[in-house]
């Protein structure tokens, strides 16, 4: 009886060790099973041998041109290969040259070069750069494009086709730029002046009740006088306080009517006059906007901005690229001038001052004269 009790106690003491030993034997059995291999594609293999797939990198940037058989539309397709899923965001920039900048978050460039030549029809080159652990591709375009002229999307890894993770950028070929040939001087030039707003649209209103449509017309008339004395023909989109298109017009109808006036009169340039506005009354200054549809749009804006700042002595808010309808849809070089902030009490008073109005007109006049001198160096004989 004593021996039976002793044997039972001994078995109970050894039981935990037997239980603990079981998982160890199981692990040994599992470790003998071959590990599952993750597929590595041709474009990734060299990199995978050195670093594995844990580091997200761009491994290749390639492109091809595609022409639609029906429409004849040409598209540049740029494909960015990577070792893992990537996402990109794109933004258009017009300074110093038209560019599409594509940011690829969290992916490094690996051993790729700093730039690559492209087709030269839609884009001339792509520059690759590393920015805080992410990558950025700057695509230099031949001409400015719209937001609707490009798209960017990601594609997953395709095991059967042996294709890696990809980011695709499609860029449509824009309409060819208009070629102009200018001579120096204002004599004989046709200048379209567009006093912003008018009629049912007062534009921005200052703290003292001044309306944008009133001050823009006042400056336009002074500028008209200066230009006509120099021998230019001036076409005004409106001579008084009225809508250009007419009653019940949509915003697009009204803007289109202004560019149509300039086109029908075969204007050499189009100048739209405005007064800026902002929620903070202390903000002020002068700026000029353009849309790059020819080699002359930016040149026109630069010359006007330089001279109007010299004349008005307000804060220089620089030359800026923008998609404003009248500068984008006008068929000739165009600039939109924001002379001052009507919401700034001091600048509102200036905009109502005949002396300041004359300074604005004189600055734009001089800017136009300088523009034709510079433009003639790139053309002539018109």
From TrEMBL:
Q: Which Pfam families match?
A: Amidase_3 (PF01520)
Does the keyword DNA-binding feature in the UniProt annotation?
no
Annotated Gene Ontology MF terms?
N-acetylmuramoyl-L-alanine amidase activity
Q: Which Gene3D superfamilies match?
A: 2.60.40.3500, Zn-dependent exopeptidases
| InterPro entries, per database record | MurNAc-LAA_cat, N-acetylmuramoyl_amidase_3
Location of the MurNAc-LAA domain: 259-369
GO biological process: one example: peptidoglycan catabolic process
Keywords for the protein's UniProt record, in alphabetical order:
Hydrolase
Q: Cellular component per GO?
A: outer membrane-bounded periplasmic space
- Name used for this protein in its record: MurNAc-LAA domain-containing protein
């Amino acid at each position: 009886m004593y021996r039976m009790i002793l044997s039972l106690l001994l078995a109970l003491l050894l039981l935990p060790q037997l239980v603990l030993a079981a998982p160890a034997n199981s692990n040994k059995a599992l470790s003998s099973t071959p590990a599952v291999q993750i597929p590595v594609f041709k474009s990734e293999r060299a990199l995978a041998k050195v670093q594995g797939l844990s580091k997200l990198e761009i491994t290749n940037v390639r492109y091809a041109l595609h022409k639609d058989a029906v429409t004849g539309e040409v598209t540049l397709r740029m494909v960015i290969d990577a070792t893992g899923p990537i996402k990109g965001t794109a933004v258009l920039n017009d300074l110093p040259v038209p560019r599409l900048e594509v940011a690829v978050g969290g992916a490094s460039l690996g051993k790729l070069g700093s730039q690559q030549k492209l087709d030269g029809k839609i884009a001339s080159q792509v520059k690759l750069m590393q920015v805080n652990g992410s990558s950025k591709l700057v695509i230099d375009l031949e001409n400015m494009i719209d937001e609707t002229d490009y798209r960017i999307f990601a594609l997953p890894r395709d095991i059967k086709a042996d294709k890696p993770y990809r980011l695709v950028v499609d860029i449509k070929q824009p309409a060819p730029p208009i070629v102009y040939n200018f001579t120096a001087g204002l004599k004989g030039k046709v200048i379209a002046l567009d006093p912003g707003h008018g009629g049912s649209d007062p534009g921005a209103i200052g703290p003292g009740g001044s309306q944008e449509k009133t001050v823009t017309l006042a400056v336009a008339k002074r500028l008209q006088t200066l230009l006509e004395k120099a021998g230019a023909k001036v076409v005004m989109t409106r001579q008084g306080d009225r809508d250009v298109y007419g009653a019940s017009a949509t915003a697009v109808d009204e803007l289109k009517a202004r560019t149509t006036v300039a086109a029908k009169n075969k204007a050499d340039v189009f100048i739209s006059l405005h007064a800026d506005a902002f929620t903070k009354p202390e903000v002020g200054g002068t700026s000029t906007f353009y849309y790059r549809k020819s080699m002359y749009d930016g040149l026109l804006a630069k010359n006007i901005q330089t001279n109007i700042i010299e004349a008005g002595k307000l804060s220089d808010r620089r030359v800026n690229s923008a998609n404003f309808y009248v500068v984008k849809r006008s068929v000739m070089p165009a600039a939109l001038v924001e002379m001052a902030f009507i919401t700034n009490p001091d600048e509102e008073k200036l905009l109502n001052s005949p002396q300041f109005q004359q300074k604005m007109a004189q600055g734009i006049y001089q800017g136009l004269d300088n523009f034709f001198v510079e433009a003639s160096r790139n053309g002539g004989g018109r």
